[in-house]
Write a structure and sequence with these properties.
With 579 residues, the chain is an alpha+beta fold. It has five domains: 3-168, Beta-Lactamase; 178-230; 236-338, Beta-Lactamase (2-Layer Sandwich); 347-432; 438-579, 2-Layer Sandwich (Heat Shock Protein 90), CATH 3.30.565.10. It has 16 helices and 14 strands.
Amino acid sequence: MGIKLRVNAAISFITVIFLLVTAFILFDDRRKSIKEEIDAGTKVTVQLLESVAFSRRSYLGGADAVDELAEFLKRAGRVRANEIRLYDQSDVLVYESPPSVYKQGRWAPEWFSQLMAPGDRDFQLNMASGYIVITPDSSRSVLDAWDELIRFGAMLLIFFVSLNLAIFALLGRAMRPLKGILSAMSLLEKGDLSTRLPDYRLPEFNAIAHTFNRMTTNLHEALTQNARLALVAQQSSDAILISDLQTNVSFWNPSAERLFGFSSNEILGRPVTTIVPEENLSTHDLISDRVSESRVIEHYESHRIKKDGTIVDVEVSLAPLVDPETNQLLGHISVLRDMTDYKSRISAEMQLQQNKRLTQLIQEKLEEERKSIARELHDEMGQNVTAIKTIATAIANRDLDEKSITRQNALTIVEVTSRIYDMVHSIIRELRPSALDHLGLEDALTELCDRYRKSNPDLAVKLDLTGDLNCYDEYVNITIYRVVQECLTNAAKHAAASSIKVSVVAEREASDLARILIRVQDDGLGLDVNLSESRRFGLLGMRERVQAFNGDIKIDSSRGSGTLITADMTVFLKGSNES
């Protein structure tokens, strides 16, 4: 039986029970009403006839009294729902009331009359000249009740049929989404995970639709994730293999084929120890026992054997393969990564770090030698040149004859010594800018730019300093100074630039670290970056200096469009400990 018939049957049963109870109440009320009506009518009739029969003329006695009463009864007719019969002293029927004309010829069914009739009984009124028999007649009232029952029953039948038809139609309309839901579930059963249900007006079906849609979405995502995981396992760059409880290989991805040289057909079903060197078997067995105890072993370095017998360095991670429902161990999952390139890269990085450190030491030694040479030039050669110049000046001053050869030679010596002095100081500034030692980095950079302006009157040099630049050690200062100096030299000598913008920005990144960003841009001829990097030692020197601080230099340029050199490095503050 379908749900619509079940609901209709339940509603029909409840409706019938309700109607039966209602009918019982109505029948009982109607039966009581008929009884009260008959009793009241009989009582009125009895009182009426008593008042007439026992009036003064009624006490005259004899046949005249009976005839007179009979005439009265004929004029009165039926008194309510009562039949009246008049008898004389000889029990001869003198008068009988006529039958009721109300619904004449119609009668209620016998069973209904017995159910509704109040149980009529005769009343006898005795007189001197005879007696009157009063018989209550409830047949008309019962017939009225029967007619009401017929109308009520017809109305109830129409209501019952209409109610069932309406409920059946409403249920059919309300249950119409079930066809779509069943169809969607059938498609889902066939594997169509793109099936979705629309929104429904009824909140119950709408909730089912939303739940179904969420279920299919989650199922689709789960299957997609599983497919993606399978794809990851197939396309992973790491070798992935699965071994069962008998240590036989049951899964072997393409990366494992590439790493070890065994195809899936060759290795599946064989012991996993096929790729384990003999000297590593004990360690392999020990680790496998630990993994069997639901322990995960990650990133331990070992060796494995390729198909051609070559030993390869690998990093191994093992995990137990556990049934999620029974929590039973099914085998082991192994992920092996070829460490050959990694170790080579680590070795290269270590070598690079050593080279950087060596470069840094060389630069430090060079700066120390330059500083020493500059000091020697200043203290020894500079003083000697000054002394020669002083002596020559004194000789020239002693000889007042301007045409004297001695005076002219002395003045020539003064002129030459002045040039030598300026040249020595220029060399000293190139070897070691004294402003760094006496004024600090900011003033040294300012003095450097001023010097380039003076030596190149047609060159506009703009300097922009941001942040505190006087809180770094000597080697950081000289590195920044040399980078700016090399950029200015290249722009002035080789680029034929008319303007140069120099920007040095210091940003504090931690309590003991700062980021230094150097930008030097010119509007010169530009350069070929690849050729410049390989042929110009100045650019190579700048890059080595900056890379010593784990920084880098970026050169953006092309022929005829100027050059932008950017140096970015991270340095320690003065007094901090490098780690």
